[in-house]
Write a structure and sequence with these properties.
With about 300 residues, the protein is mainly α. It contains 10 helices and no strands. The chain has 2 domains: about 60 residues, no CATH class; about 210 residues, no CATH class.
Length: about 300
């Protein structure tokens, strides 16, 4: 339960507008707005009481925000193509962050588990250097995860320039972002599943005696990353479908250029952007990462 001022500020943050009288009255009737005020306490326990009240207010607001986020995202995950006008920039970017972080984690976690298995075998016959190698691996895993987050983020946003160019006569940048970011709601769900599976996929056990059985090791590695690759492909399919829906929405009816060619043009622009990102962002990150693994 919040004060009218707190509720109004939250409403404006979520909906990018001020609430009307009916919405305020509905919030009061539902108990979201408190109509009671407490008199200022003057005794010696006032600071503690105020601190406790502030903590309870923060907890209540956080709980309310989480509930509102779940209410907001549930219909988008279930029916993303039917949600035409999705607002609330803070929730949209939060969902994008969740999808990006969980996607990056699903890949980096499989790599981390594989390196840990290799480290355990390595430390069994190189005990004097085990501590040094373990420290280097820890630093590498952190660096890998950070680079993966950056890589996933820029790749996910690679479609925005093409969408903006193809649909520039219908949607502005704000509308393009809102309509595109809503597709990260189902993508976030898929990536969360991928993050969970990254703890469950098989990791080959490497030892001195098993080094000769290369085919078995490679088969296990491919099966491990194959599951994560399927998750990534499903995510790409979701975003690609979203881009098609956006182009179709912007170019309804008879057009000089058919929607097929517009979609194809948008894909070509996206591929060009991805190529630029690979050369100037992802490539240097991978080069730095390869130097780090070379020092392990």
């Amino acid at each position: 339960m919040a004060t009218k001022k707190e509720w109004t500020e939250y409403f404006e943050l979520i909906n990018d507008r001020q609430p009307n009288a009916e919405e305020v009255l509905a919030a009061v009737e539902s108990g979201e707005i408190s109509v009671h005020t407490n008199d200022t306490q003057t005794n010696s326990t006032a600071p503690k009481a105020e601190l406790s009240e502030d903590a309870n207010r923060v907890y209540t607001n956080a709980k309310q925000h989480a509930g509102n986020y779940w209410t907001w995202i549930k219909p988008i995950v279930a029916h993303p193509s039917e949600q035409v006008n999705v607002t609330s920039n803070i929730f949209l970017w939060l969902t994008f962050a969740i999808a990006t972080i969980t996607g990056a984690f699903s890949v980096s976690n499989v790599v981390r588990r594989g390196l840990n298995v290799a480290f355990q075998s390595y430390s069994s016959f190189s005990g004097s250097e085990a501590a040094t190698v373990h420290q280097q691996l820890s630093s590498f895993n952190i660096q890998l995860f950070f680079y993966m987050v950056v890589g996933f983020a820029v790749m996910y946003l690679a479609a925005v320039p093409g969408l903006l160019l193809i649909n520039r006569n219908v949607f502005n940048l704000k509308s393009i972002l809102e309509k595109y970011l809503k597709w990260f709601a189902p993508l976030a769900l898929v990536n969360i599943i991928g993050a969970i599976l990254s703890f469950l996929v098989p990791i080959p056990s490497i030892s001195i005696s098993s080094l000769d059985d290369v085919s078995s090791i490679m088969q296990t590695i491919f099966s491990s990353f194959g599951i994560i690759a399927v998750i990534i492909i499903i995510g790409i399919a979701i975003l690609t479908s979203g881009q098609q829906f956006m182009v179709a929405e912007a170019h309804q009816g008879k057009q000089k250029i058919d929607a097929l060619w517009l979609v194809l043009g948008q894909w070509i622009i996206t591929i060009i952007v991805i190529g630029i990102e690979l050369k100037y962002i992802v490539g240097p990150l991978l080069e730095t990462l390869s130097k780090s693994i070379g020092n392990v």
